[in-house]
Amino acid sequence: MPSVDEFSYDEFSLFHENVSEWNLDVPIPPVRRFFVAVDGLRQLSGLQWGDGDPELALLHGGAQNAHTFDTVALALQRPLIALDLPGHGHSDAGPYGPSAIASHAADVEWALVQLLSGPRPLVGMSLGGLTSILVAHDRPDLISSLLLIDITPGVNAEKARHITDFVNGPTSFDDFEEMLARTIEHNPTRSVSSLRRGILHNALRRSDGTWVWRHQQHPKSELVAPEVGDLWATLGELTMPVTLLRAMAAGSVVDDDDDDEFRRRLPGATVIHVPGAGHSIQGDAPLELAALINRFCV
Asked: Is this structure's pTM higher than 0.90?
């Protein structure tokens, strides 16, 4: 494996690694990066997979980006879009910071109006899942069904502490290997090659040779984010089909109380437990996730 100094990073050059790691016998479809205006000069970016009209949209979790779904998209072999949330990946920052889901939802709605030709399934993981609840509630004309990946409105700071401890760690690293070592420490179930690939998609090398996460390139906002109200009540008002995928291995942020409350708020919803997968089901069990998306996002 070449060192990062020898590696000329091209975000579209690594898909063969995903195919090899998961023994996929599929062609690599055309993939392009796009940008859409959402508020004046601000833009959201993302990846469009395939040449056809997108059949669904994917939203990643906090401190991630659209490439977190690469293996899933390869397994699906369906035209789709994976967005970078505001302040993540190649998207411009929103006015209220990287965790302001009400602001994120407004941006995503503007993007989906431009990118989709009609109502489509929306898949949201973690922060992207909370954002998706608001999108589905505010614009049911855009969303035909909602699939949430290991997230409910009951997730709080204590349940997510193991994630925020990693995200809120060092703001810069002397070299790539230091960044990789810390990532391996916090993701013991993932292969080194997948973590290395994820960092290349999610980090920037500065002119002095140090490395930072892409989501850290934007200055922190001092504006107070808009209130979202009772997100459990918002979830309970959804009228389209809703599915929750709950990760059952270490690292999940959804517990039994969340599971029970989800079923109480949406008695007609579907809850699927995914054994052997932690919070990022798309990383731990991408082929199973692809199969579940094909089952519930039609």
From this structure: yes
